[in-house]
């Protein structure tokens, strides 16, 4: 059986990484949520960069395309750790964990438990070190206001 590091490495899409996030939470917290969509929008980055957000009470997690593009330009090998930790954080919000400080601690704990010490846990426990790889120096403007929603099949995740 593959461990989570191998499963993440074998993931070929953001949808597959999202499925792995759901599996990770089910494995560590025995919690899950069905019917959650994944959307993308170009929010840019400024001094207060938003990587992703979960509108409380909704059925969608929205990721900012700007940091994803920046990672692909600077350190493509960081894409999966970045996407996994960002989606994990927002997925925890969707499960009712709303205190930002507590969600950050829980994201860090889950990543350390499943991945040990390494890049993914460093992303989860303190992304500050990686900000040059996920944000544009001097900022980048938002260029979209319409969310593009991915079609996610529930059979992509069987918990």
What does this structure look like?
The chain has helices at 4-10, 14-29, 65-74, 79-94, 100-115, 119-125, 131-134, and strands at 37-41, 52-53, 60-64, 148-150. The chain has 159 residues and is α+β, with helices and mostly antiparallel strands. The protein has a 4-stranded mixed sheet with strand order 2-3-1-4. Mean pLDDT is 91; it is low at 154-159.
How many domain modules? Answer: 1
The helix-and-strand class reads alpha+beta
How many H/I helical runs? 7
CATH superfamily: Metalloproteases ("zincins"), catalytic domain
Topology:
Blueprint: H1 4-10, H2 14-29, E1 37-41, E2 52-53, E3 60-64, H3 65-74, H4 79-94, H5 100-115, H6 119-125, H7 131-134, E4 148-150
Parallel strand pairs: 1-3
Antiparallel strand pairs: 1-4, 2-3
Highlighted features:
159 residues; alpha+beta; Zincin-like; 4-stranded mixed beta sheet; 7 helices; 4 strands; 48% helix; disordered C terminus
What is this structure, in a nutshell?
This protein is an alpha+beta fold. It contains seven helices and four strands, in the order H-H-E-E-E-H-H-H-H-H-E.
């Amino acid at each position: 059986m593959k461990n989570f590091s191998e499963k993440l490495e074998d993931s070929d899409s953001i949808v597959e990484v999202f499925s792995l996030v759901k599996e990770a939470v089910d494995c560590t917290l025995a919690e899950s949520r069905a019917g959650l969509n994944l959307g993308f929008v170009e929010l840019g980055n400024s001094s207060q960069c938003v990587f992703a957000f979960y509108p409380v009470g909704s059925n969608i997690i929205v990721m900012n395309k700007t940091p994803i593009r920046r990672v692909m330009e600077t350190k493509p090998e960081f894409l999966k750790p970045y996407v996994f930790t960002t989606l994990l954080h927002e997925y925890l919000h969707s499960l009712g964990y709303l205190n930002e400080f507590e969600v950050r601690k829980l994201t860090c704990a889950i990543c350390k438990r499943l991945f040990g010490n390494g890049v993914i846990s460093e992303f989860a426990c303190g992304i500050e070190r990686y900000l040059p790889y996920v944000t544009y120096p001097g900022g980048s403007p938002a260029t979209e206001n319409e969310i593009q929603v991915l079609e996610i099949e529930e059979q992509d995740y069987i918990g």
